[in-house]
Amino acid sequence: MKVKFLVAYDYDCGGIWRVIDADGKTQIVEKYPELIIVDEKPHWMSEERLADLTKNAINIENSDDTFFKSVVSQRSIDNDS
Predict the structure, then answer these.
(1) Confidence of residue 81 (pLDDT cuts 50, 70, 90)
(2) How do 58-59 and 3-10 pair as beta strands?
(3) DSSP 11
(4) If I label 59, which of 2, 7, 18, 76 is the partner at 20 to 30 A Cα–Cα?
(5) Distance (Å, rounded) from C-alpha 32 to C-alpha 63?
(6) What percent of the chain clears pLDDT 70, i.e. is strictly above it?
(7) Quick count: other Cβ atoms within 10 Å of Cβ 7?
(8) What is the 3-state secondary structure (H, E, C) of 17-71?
């Protein structure tokens, strides 16, 4: 059964926040080690923003999602440098 996890992708100048449906934290770490799993909502994030992210949660198995594609693309760039 999938569980919702709040994650952040820190790209040094800022971050992208998403909610991911996954079997567990290990699945996220193994597939996208660049992501930071956040156990509690940051104090600056509104309940409305969290609700919106949760409503639009991404299934970890959806490798066609633009967020995941961006993470993998950046990984390739980082590995080439």
Answers:
(1) low
(2) unpaired
(3) -
(4) 76
(5) 11
(6) 96
(7) 24
(8) EEEEEECCHHHHHHHCCCCEEECCCCCCCCHHHHHHHHHCCEECCCCCCHHHHHH
Query: Residue 1: its pLDDT value, please?
Result: 86
Per DSSP, 64 falls in state T
The residues with which 4 forms a beta bridge, in sequence order, are 21
Tokens at 38, concatenated: 């956040």
Instruction: Count CB neighbours of 17 within 10 A.
Output: 16
Token pair of 46 as six digits: 């509104």
Listed by start position, the domains of the chain span: 3-80
Between 30 and 11, where is the model more confident?
Answer: 30
Q: How far apart are the first and last CA of the chain?
A: 38
Residue 80, both tokens: 């080439």
Residue the block writes with tokens 């934290």: 25
